[in-house]
Recover the amino acids of this structure.
């Protein structure tokens, strides 16, 4: 077993002070704790499922790049996962007795609040943005606000406020900037390399010391619930009231939070969040960057992991289809043993994955498409941003010198019980000239590959039609030309 | 004197017609604005959790709550048998809305019992342990397929009639008949339903309720408790959004909390989880609109016949008046030479639908604009041409084309000027040409544009609701306490009314204290609804302030022995003869002289009357107007779209506060757009709402608003009637500006068939509906 010392309490910074919590349930959410245990009621609950942003707070964590603050949804963030972090709520934005923060002033002057219920969440999201980018473009602001719903303003006033924040003050006098060195020092001190174990019996949580420790914990307790970003598991608790004990938190594990490229393959540790993966992925495989920008909202991207997106086995998870199209592999680990399998083989059936008891997802390896190949991924949802996929198609094409299809890998989400290759379509296309005629001829084969369902997101008919049309879109995209093939918000007019 | 008040100022700070920030803005941004769930709970507060029906229609055969009672933290479980008064909160007086289900359930999600526990979490968890046996009955889930003439209705329908529509249609050179499905809408106020009840002595109870209608909530709570209204006080400082969803829907939570609080003699709080809120509380009505229109070759409408079938859900609630208002707006801004229109509030086994910003009016207008489109496609003209041909006569034109289907004369029509100005400022003609060029060149992406008008009738059609009360105190230091019957849900009502009071006394706005709405200060108030908040309460507060001002004037005239007309209220001071004294000093002197410095004000809207049986009357005091021009891009492979640009010109009369009004216009438009585009309520065949959370029910995001969004107010308009400072209501009228987006999508879809076929795009126009409409048009034109 691990040699890590054991601690029986969670410690973190809450705004200006250090807190120690001994009595913490594995499924206690940060939001309830703030509002009920601490009577800090500036942070609101609008949905308790990560979709509205009323509960947005910032979480600061020490990373390889230093102290980073990110917006998160307190409603689905478990208290236990905050060990060693700095939690910043709306109460801390305006220092006691101090003047209002530039974000707050701009929101007031530009009439960014009406009923005001969403406002603390917007202030926190804009605060998080402003710390990173003092003069953001509209596209950047909209992206930062994808996870914040406002039912009153129609957003225009909030946008005006967001553009003007920097006119109200600079970052240097900001409370978090002023405290920065002290916070780093405190957080560093909190890192004692211990394994945290809190509770007993039916309410137990573990925060392993490192990846090896995690492997050991899980092997000893294969039924434990692994919680990475909790953007799925959070809802099991708030909506389904499922008992998840014992819980193993892994979001903090440095050993799972690495993303790097070697020999044309990008290896993404299971604990890498969408936000952390964005830079490298968007640079090396731009289509994936665009896709990530449409997964959840900023808060969900800051918490949610790619490992979790794969591990949950969902047929509508957004990363598996493009990864499958790119020929990704998955490394699973149990104790000290590892095995690596093609990603598509991980998904066996609805709700069933190739994961043994005690085993966990360690990393996914995504080959960067070759220069002469074409890769695209298209997501269709009812609402453009922060919505779950109705149908998603990923296409990876390599043409032979004679213009015929040397290889094509096509995978879809939302079309079957698992993320699934369009094997019959691929077969029809392979070896044929890459022409409109070939593409049109391949459309029939979709019926062999897919029998989609009707649900609240889309009808089977629409899914099938749109899925086929995505192949047409892909063909058009490979033909180049100046004609737009997709609607987009921020292309040059 | 207050250190801030300027005794030399030429104008007060914060009077009417000035752009003021929301009075609570500094608290909103700091998280210090207190909503009901944020209030410190009294010691010993218990928490309630609802047990909801899991079937849409059935007889309750047995309800076994023993495991619920045995669950940790549970104090007790309430059922209908625990309701001490009447188990009914029906706002229509039809006794069809039980607090807790009795004997049968009529929709999936209907509250059957209520767990009272030490914590909310315990109550929620325990509620899941009930063992309930139902004898399931077939549910009616949708209104399509129902017969609006024969199937069960929850209340009496309305018919409007002018001229002989059938004959006019039959005699018309051209005719079109069609039908449209129009979806409902969840309010999605960010703060869900919540109430905190604190028991008092004897039969007294105080309920903090997130309600738009405190008096109505008071009556319902009294009714359910079986006590007189005087025993019940309802208070609300602010709501985190309402939009009509807390007009009657707040009553259930308030009643349950009150019943439990009285029973256990402890404070009780109930706050619905988002999914429960969406499942168990009513929404905007979905409609099926059948229409037939007769017109000439130019596109003049000659006669029209409508059937507005609306999904009332299982009870009447406000469905009668909502259907009425749909009919009142089936003309939008157009004159119908002959018209016949009927409503059919149909019974289904779904949650009882209710008020939602516009209250049926927007649905009437969507139907109307579909008819305009039909005419346009039939005669081969731009829909905007047809619109302009059919407008009511402009104000001041001595014509005949000015009578509504309910026989009211439209006297204040300014839609022509609004549309003309917007057409110009939005460059409609130029962009229409550019779009045609774009569409000719592009295979996958098609653009569309539409400019649609709005005329919205202002007044409650229930005449007695058109009254308001206010209470104003001037304290001896000259500071003012303002209270009125309206409620604050973000629309800036309290601010506007405070501006009115400041103006009346000529004191700076910060001298006027805004206070929580409570039935103990102002009784018998109307819900803050029908856009009437500032119109009614502004007038009532002005009336109260004027009474006090008159007393101050009389006092000064008497004290200084001058005629009353030489007492003039100047900014923060009063000129008395040829000397000036500060307002505060005058007040102090008046107090010492024992002048009453408090007054209750009242207002009732003049002129209006409405005879529902005859379908005639002066239903509206006046109309508010506006127009929007929207352009969209549509992906013809997937149906996805973006709104490229929207220009709005909207009429609020002489605005009390332009900043607030522009916020209402922007927010209303985006909400209307959401209703007609991505907000889709989906019920499955068992009557279960599948879109009961923001993960599946998609309201607009910042990135859904128009890429270019220009909103302007008509700076030249003022109310035709003597409304409060000649301003006009602004809550609801902007919402149907969102129709421009639906029509622009339809225009883009039509381009795939060369604008030869009316797309008949139903709403909400999700990407799926848009793509299916494109496919249909392609198939139809391919056949020809
Ligand atoms: C508002 C909102 C919007 C969303 N939008 C999208 C979207 O657009 N597209 C999309 O694809 N998803 C979306 N999601 C879903 C979710 O964000 C993703 O599935 C996310 O990637 C899950 O990662 P996580 O770290 O939060 O997982 P968690 O919730 O922590 O865990 C998810 C599951 O994976 C397991 N697990 C996690 N890590 C491991 C591991 N290393 N080994 C084995 N098992 C593991 C957990 O036990 C659990 O079963 C959304 C969620 C929310 C709340
Ligand atoms: S409460 Fe809605 S995201 Fe947390
Ligand atoms: S101001 Fe009301 S929800 Fe945003």
């Amino acid at each position: 077993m691990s040699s890590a010392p054991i601690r029986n309490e969670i410690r973190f910074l809450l705004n200006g002070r250090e807190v120690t919590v001994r009595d913490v349930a594995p499924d206690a959410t940060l939001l309830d704790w703030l509002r009920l245990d601490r009577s800090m009621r500036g942070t609101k609950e609008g949905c308790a499922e990560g979709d509205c942003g009323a509960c947005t707070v910032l979480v600061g964590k020490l990373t390889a790049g230093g102290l980073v603050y990110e917006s998160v949804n307190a409603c689905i963030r478990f208290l236990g996962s905050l060990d060693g972090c700095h939690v910043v709520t709306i109460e801390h934005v305006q220092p006691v007795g101090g003047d209002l923060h530039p974000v707050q002033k701009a929101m007031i002057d530009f009439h960014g609040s009406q009923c005001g219920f969403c406002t603390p969440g917007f202030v926190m999201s804009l605060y998080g943005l402003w710390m990173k980018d003092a003069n953001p473009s509209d596209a950047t602001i909209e992206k930062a606000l994808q996870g914040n719903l406002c039912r009153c303003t129609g957003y225009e006033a909030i946008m005006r406020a967001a553009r003007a924040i920097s006119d109200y003050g600079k970052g240097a006098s900001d409370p978090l900037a002023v405290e920065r060195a002290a916070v780093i020092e405190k957080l560093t001190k909190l890192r004692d390399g211990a394994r945290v174990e809190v509770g007993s019996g039916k309410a137990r949580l573990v925060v392993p010391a490192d990846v090896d420790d995690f492997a050991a914990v899980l092997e000893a307790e294969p039924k434990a619930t692994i919680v990475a970003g909790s953007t799925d598991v959070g809802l099991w608790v708030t909506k389904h009231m499922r008992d998840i004990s014992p819980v193993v938190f892994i979001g903090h594990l440095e050993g799972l939070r690495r993303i790097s490229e070697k020999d044309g393959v990008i290896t993404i540790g299971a604990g890498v969040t969408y936000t952390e993966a964005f830079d490298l992925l968007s640079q090396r495989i731009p289509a994936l960057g665009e896709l990530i920008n449409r997964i959840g909202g900023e808060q969900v991207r800051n918490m949610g992991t790619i490992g979790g997106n794969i591990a949950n086995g969902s047929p509508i998870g957004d990363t598996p289809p493009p990864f499958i199209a790119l020929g990704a592999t998955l490394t699973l680990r149990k104790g000290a043993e590892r095995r690596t399998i093609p990603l598509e083989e991980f998904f066996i059936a609805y709700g069933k994955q190739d994961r043994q008891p005690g085993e966990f997802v360690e990393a996914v390896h995504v080959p960067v498409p070759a220069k002469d190949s074409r890769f695209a991924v298209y997501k269709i949802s009812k609402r453009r941003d922060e919505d779950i996929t109705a149908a998603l198609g990923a296409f990876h094409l390599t043409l032979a010198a004679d213009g015929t299809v040397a290889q094509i890998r096509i995978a879809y989400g939302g079309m079957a019980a698992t993320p699934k290759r369009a094997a019959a379509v691929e077969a029809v296309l392979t070896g044929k000239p890459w022409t409109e005629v070939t593409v049109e001829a391949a459309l029939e084969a979709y019926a062999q590959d897919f029998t989609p369902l009707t649900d609240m997101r889309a009808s089977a008919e629409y899914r099938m039609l749109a899925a086929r049309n995505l192949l047409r879109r892909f063909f058009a995209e490979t033909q180049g030309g100046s004609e737009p093939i997709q609607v987009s918000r921020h292309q040059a007019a | 004197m207050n250190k801030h008040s300027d005794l030399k100022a030429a104008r007060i700070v914060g009077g009417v017609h000035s752009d003021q920030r929301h009075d609570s803005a500094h608290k909103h941004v700091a998280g210090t604005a207190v909503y009901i769930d944020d209030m410190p709970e009294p010691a010993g507060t218990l928490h309630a959790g609802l047990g909801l029906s899991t079937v849409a229609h059935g007889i309750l055969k047995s309800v076994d709550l023993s495991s619920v009672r045995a669950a940790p933290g549970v104090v007790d479980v309430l059922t209908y048998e625990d309701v001490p008064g009447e188990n009914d909160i029906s706002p229509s007086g039809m006794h069809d809305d039980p607090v807790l289900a009795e004997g049968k359930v009529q929709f999936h999600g209907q509250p059957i019992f209520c767990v009272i526990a030490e914590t909310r979490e315990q109550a929620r968890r325990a509620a899941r342990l009930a063992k309930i046996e139902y004898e399931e009955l077939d549910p009616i889930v949708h209104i399509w397929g129902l017969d609006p003439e024969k199937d069960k209705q929850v209340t009496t329908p309305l018919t409007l009639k002018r001229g002989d529509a059938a004959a006019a249609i039959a005699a018309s050179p051209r005719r079109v008949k069609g039908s449209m499905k129009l979806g409902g809408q969840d309010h999605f106020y960010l703060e869900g339903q919540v109430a905190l009840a604190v028991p008092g002595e004897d039969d007294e109870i105080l309920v903090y309720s997130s309600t738009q209608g405190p008096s109505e909530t008071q009556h319902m709570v009294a009714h359910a408790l079986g006590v007189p209204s005087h025993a019940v006080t309802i208070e609300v400082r602010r709501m985190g959004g309402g939009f009509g969803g807390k007009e009657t829907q707040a009553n259930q939570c308030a009643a349950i909390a009150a019943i439990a609080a009285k029973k256990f003699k402890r404070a009780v709080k109930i706050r619905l989880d988002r999914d429960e809120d969406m499942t168990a509380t009513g929404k905007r009505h979905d409609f099926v609109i059948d229409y037939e229109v007769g017109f000439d070759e130019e596109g003049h409408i000659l006669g029209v016949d409508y059937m507005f079938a609306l999904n009332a859900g299982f009870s009447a609630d406000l469905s009668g008046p909502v259907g009425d208002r749909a009919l009142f707006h089936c003309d939008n801004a157009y004159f119908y030479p002959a018209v016949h229109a009927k409503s059919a509030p149909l019974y289904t086994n779904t949650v009882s639908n209710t008020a939602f910003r516009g209250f049926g009016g927007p649905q009437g207008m969507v139907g109307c604009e579909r008819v305009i489109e039909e005419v346009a496609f039939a005669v081969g003209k731009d829909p905007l041409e047809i619109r302009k041909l059919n407008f009511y006569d402009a104000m001041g034109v001595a014509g005949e084309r000015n009578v509504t289907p309910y026989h009211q004369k439209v006297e204040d029509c300014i839609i022509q000027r609004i549309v003309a100005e917007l057409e110009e400022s939005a460059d409609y003609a130029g962009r229409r040409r550019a779009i045609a060029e774009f569409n000719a060149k592009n295979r996958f992406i098609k653009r569309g544009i539409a400019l649609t008008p709005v005329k919205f009738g202002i007044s409650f059609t229930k005449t007695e609701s058109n009254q308001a009360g206010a209470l104003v105190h001037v304290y001896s230091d000259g500071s003012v306490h303002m209270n009125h019957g309206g409620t604050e849900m973000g629309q800036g009502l309290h601010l506007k009314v405070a501006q009115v009071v400041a103006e009346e006394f000529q004191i700076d706005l910060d001298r006027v204290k805004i206070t929580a709405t409570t039935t103990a200060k102002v009784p018998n108030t109307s819900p803050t609804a029908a856009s009437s908040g500032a119109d009614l309460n502004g007038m009532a507060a002005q009336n109260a302030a004027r009474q006090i001002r008159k007393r101050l004037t009389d006092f000064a005239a008497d004290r200084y022995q001058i005629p009353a007309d030489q007492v003039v209220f100047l900014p923060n001071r009063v000129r008395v003869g040829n000397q000036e004294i500060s307002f505060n000093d005058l007040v102090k002197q008046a107090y010492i002289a024992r002048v009453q410095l408090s007054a209750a004000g009242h207002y009732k809207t003049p002129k209006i009357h409405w005879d529902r049986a005859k379908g005639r009357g002066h239903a509206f005091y006046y109309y508010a107007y506006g127009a929007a021009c929207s352009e969209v891009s549509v992906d013809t492979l997937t149906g996805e779209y973006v709104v490229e640009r929207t220009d709005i010109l909207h009429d609020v009369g002489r605005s009390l506060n332009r900043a607030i009004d522009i916020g209402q216009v922007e927010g209303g438009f985006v909400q209307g757009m959401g209703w007609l585009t991505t907000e889709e309520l989906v019920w499955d065949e068992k009557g279960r709402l599948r879109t009961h959370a923001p993960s599946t029910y998609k309201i607009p995001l910042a990135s859904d608003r128009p890429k270019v969004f220009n909103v302007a107010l008509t700076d030249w308009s003022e109310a035709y009637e003597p409304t409060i400072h000649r301003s006009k209501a602004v809550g609801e009228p902007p919402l149907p500006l969102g129709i421009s987006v639906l029509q622009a999508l339809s225009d883009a879809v039509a381009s795939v068939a060369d604008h030869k076929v009316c797309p008949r795009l139903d709403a909400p126009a999700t990407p799926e509906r848009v793509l299916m409409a494109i496919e249909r048009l392609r198939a139809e034109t391919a056949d020809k």
About this structure: Chain B has 18 helices and 29 strands. Chain B touches chain A through 91 residues (CB under 8 Å). Residues A 113-119, 150-153; B 190, 241, 490 surround FE2/S2 (inorganic) cluster (ligand 3) (CB under 6 Å).
